[in-house]
Amino acid sequence: MRAANNKTSFLSKVFSDVRLSTDSSEISVRCPFCGKAGKSKMCIIIETDVYHCWVCDEKGRGLGKLIKKVAPQKLQEYNEQYRSTKSPAQKIEEQIPDISLPEDFALLAGNDFLDPDGRQILKYATSRGFTKSKLWKFRVGYSKENQWRRRLILPSFDEDGELNFITGRAIDKANTFRYKNESVSRNTVVYNEIDVDFSRGLVLVEGPLDLIKVPYNATCLLGSSLNAESRLFHQIAKNQTPVILLLDPDVKKKVFRIADLLSDFSVDVKVNFPPEGKDINDLMEDEVEHLIKTAQQYTYACKMKIKLGAIKI
Ligand SMILES: [Zn+2]
Q1: What architecture does CATH give domain 196-308?
Q2: What is the CA(237)–ligand 1 centre distance, in A?
Q3: Cβ atoms within 10 A of the Cβ of 17, count?
Q4: 54 CA to middle of ligand 1, Å?
């Protein structure tokens, strides 16, 4: 740990406009290639020396090239004392806890011989808006294992098809423990990234069950905020993916925060909300489609108008 602290303070002397991430694993600095004073757009992972600029897309591993540019007199000290010997893959492996689907996980779709639990879970899924094709699309299933019993299970897969998140929604009202989740490191999860195309417009909703109603390229935040250190944010910023935010009306402030963050990284943002008192999941698919089509371009003026109630969206 001491060595890491020393390295952070060494890098802070080498680069300008240095900002440390909340978990101290990364720093953002002024990009030596395209940087302007006061802008910290180059991100460096301290342990692995992996760097990437969100603006000019300069990236690589090993900081020698960068240090040569901004402080060549420090290069020797870097090479002798701070150069990383760890591969990025090693680091990722250490970070990711293993998760797996229950042994007896069974898909609801195409299952003609559902037992009583299975039938009730299917009934619940239908009531939440799942059609047969959507059961396939979201790979929805169930299990009889104690911890997953009488839960609608939605698995999520990363871009390589590896399981990265599981949520189990209790189907019984009496069960106050509504969601059971399992996750790899939260910041690395993009919900069903395997189905997401970052080169097209992307709709962001709050939870997996909201996604059922979105007939569009979409993923969910698994909450109502977007962390600047998350993979989802990095993917959007890197690909300059146009974003449509469709969150529930009770989290407007959080929507503004997300929209401000994305706008800071020159991402095109539109926003819309379901009618007061309704959540995305309450709406019909064509109502959601209408929200997408009528979403407002997010600008400072738009934010003020929504705040003042001058535009009703
Ligand atoms: Zn740059």
Answers
A1: 3-Layer(aba) Sandwich (3.40)
A2: 13
A3: 17
A4: 7
